[in-house]
Design goal:
The chain has one domain. The chain starts with a strand and ends with a helix. Strands 1-2-3 form a three-stranded parallel beta sheet. By secondary structure, the chain is of the alpha/beta class.
Length: 94
């Protein structure tokens, strides 16, 4: 299992830059067998400007089901969990 701290990825960057950074960290891990754990400790928002260049690009490449099976979350607030679910739902409805 590989853990990535989202707060550290967001710190000091614009949302689009942080999203691209997350994508560059996640992309090489997607073909492996390990589960990827995203630590959401102290993360208060996940705007589309962050999600589109990270999770959105991965969904385009691998599909929603693969992303949901490979990426898990820890220290996630109910609000962030609902935001992610809404984001995934928007891809499955299109």
């Amino acid at each position: 299992m590989r853990t990535l701290n989202i707060k550290q990825i967001l710190d000091g960057k614009t949302y689009p830059d942080a999203g691209l950074n997350l994508y560059s960290l996640l992309s090489p891990l997607m073909d492996g067998d390990d589960i990827i754990l995203l630590d959401m400790n102290e993360v208060n928002a996940l705007p589309s400007m962050f999600l589109n260049p990270s999770i959105g690009m991965l969904i385009t490449e691998y599909g929603v089901d693969t992303i949901k099976s490979k990426i898990k979350y820890t220290n996630i607030s109910k609000m962030i969990a609902m935001r992610l679910q809404s984001y995934f739902d928007s891809y499955t409805q299109n």
